[in-house]
Amino acid sequence: xxxxxxxxxxxxxxxxxxxxxxxxxxxxxxxxxxxxxxxxxxxxxxxxxxxxxxxxxxxxxxxxxxxxxxxxxxxxxxxxxxxxxxxxxxxxxxxxxxxxxxxxxxxxxxxxxxxxxxxxxxxxxxxxxxxxxxxxxxxxxxxxxxxxxxxxxxxxxxxxxxxxxxxxxxxxxxxxxxxxxxxxxxxxxxxxxxxxxxxxxxxxxxxxxxxxxxxxxxxxxxxxxxxxxxxxxxxxxxxxxxxxxxxxxxxxxxxxxxxxxxxxxxxxxxxxxxxxxxxxxxxxxxxxxxxxxxxxxxxxxxxxxxxxxxxxxxxxxxxxxxxxxxxx
Length: 328
Ligand code: ASP
Description:
The protein is α+β, with helices and mostly antiparallel strands. The protein has one domain: Glutamine Phosphoribosylpyrophosphate, subunit 1, domain 1 (4-Layer Sandwich). The chain contains eight helices and twelve strands. The protein has helices at residues 22-44, 49-62, 106-116, 124-133, 147-156, 246-251, 254-265, 269-283; strands spanning 5-13, 82-88, 93-100, 121-123, 193-198, 204-210, 231-233, 238-244, 288-294, 299-300, 307-314, 320-324. The strands form two sheets. Strands 4-3-2-6-5-1-11-12 form an eight-stranded mixed β-sheet. Helix 1 packs antiparallel against helix 2 (49-62) and helix 2 packs antiparallel against helix 3 (106-116). The radius of gyration is 18 Å and the shape is globular. The protein starts with a strand and ends with a strand. Aspartic acid binds next to strand 8. Keywords: Autocatalytic cleavage, Hydrolase, Protease. InterPro entries: Ntn_hydrolases_N, Peptidase_T2. Pfam families: Asparaginase_2. GO terms for molecular function: hydrolase activity, acting on carbon-nitrogen (but not peptide) bonds, in linear amides; peptidase activity.
């Protein structure tokens, strides 16, 4: 029997000690620890990696601290459009939804697509109808509202740029200006969420869920629901969930590339994930990070930003939570 392991992330970006109050920091550590513990409980009870990753992401979606589900960011039209994906490493089964607006837990909709349809990716109203028919809870759009996210959007609406929710000093589509762009929401850092897990039976799984990027164009789909870009799992190599500038992760097929490096070039999990995060992604302006786990239970959590909300738990050991690049 393999010792089960789970890791989660809550987004990467300009997260500095100076920008996060001690109270907020403590809230993030507590939320991350609680959610990893819930994932560990699933695994330690004999649950599958897929069940544990789905459950962890469901809890992250419900937590307003993170940009997924309740607490998601706003589009340029002041709405929420959510993306999510799950993948099972044992058989490469996967499911995803994009641009959904009324599903409480997009990750459960992604799982329904995987298990109850013959497709991999459903989008928009048809995805919502499919999920509702299959028992996924619906909500009115105001469920996703949080004052912090709304204030953040009000600061950038009308500008022709979209911004990473948790990385206010970077911008995905803006023209470069000489002056540095000020953080739009220095007091509240949120993030896309994800989980990767290895179960007692040696199976890997990954799940990712997001509201995308603040002020994004309606209809924009990022990397999170795209297999191989923002989410990937294959028992032969790795389970990965990504966060960051989605277009760059799509253009480099970042999560799949980590597995490919391991399969074809014989790289270790550490080598492969660091090469993608510190070499491949920056070449196309990609900023962010990944959480990755291999079939031996090795973990890699590299990121090329100032911080990444992250946590992991092995077997019965207490969860470990981290935010910044170096330990406090
Ligand atoms: N990767 C996400 C997206 O582009 C954003 C994030 O990770 O915060 O939709």
